[in-house]
């Protein structure tokens, strides 16, 4: 069963940007896409556990700040070496001006 957890306000993340969100002893990354949608993935790179929130967001991709591996944050798919393991993704819904993450 999905539990919806309030993570942040929609205006806390600029379009084409990412925010780190720590909850329940885990780290997540919340993304605001260029078309105004929000997405959530695990917050650490699958290559060397670096925080993705320090990376560069371009269109629908996040680039890891350590080795420039890249993921599609909509699907979690690893897109560029050295990353080869996909990120877990989590459902997101908007209620008013709040971003809720399904855990």
UniProtKB/TrEMBL annotation:
Keywords: 2Fe-2S, Iron, Iron-sulfur, Metal-binding. This is Rieske 2Fe-2S domain-containing protein. InterPro entries: MocE_2FeS, Rieske_2Fe-2S, Rieske_2Fe-2S_sf. Residues 5-101 form the Rieske domain. Transmembrane segments: none annotated. Belongs to the bacterial ring-hydroxylating dioxygenase ferredoxin component family. The lineage of its organism: Bacteria, Pseudomonadati, Pseudomonadota, Alphaproteobacteria, Rhodobacterales. Gene3D superfamilies: Rieske [2Fe-2S] iron-sulphur domain (2.102.10.10). It comes from Rubellimicrobium rubrum. It comes from the Bacteria. GO terms for molecular function: 2 iron, 2 sulfur cluster binding; metal ion binding. Its cofactor is [2Fe-2S] cluster. PANTHER family: FERREDOXIN-RELATED, RIESKE DOMAIN-CONTAINING PROTEIN. Pfam families: Rieske. The keyword Glycoprotein does not apply.
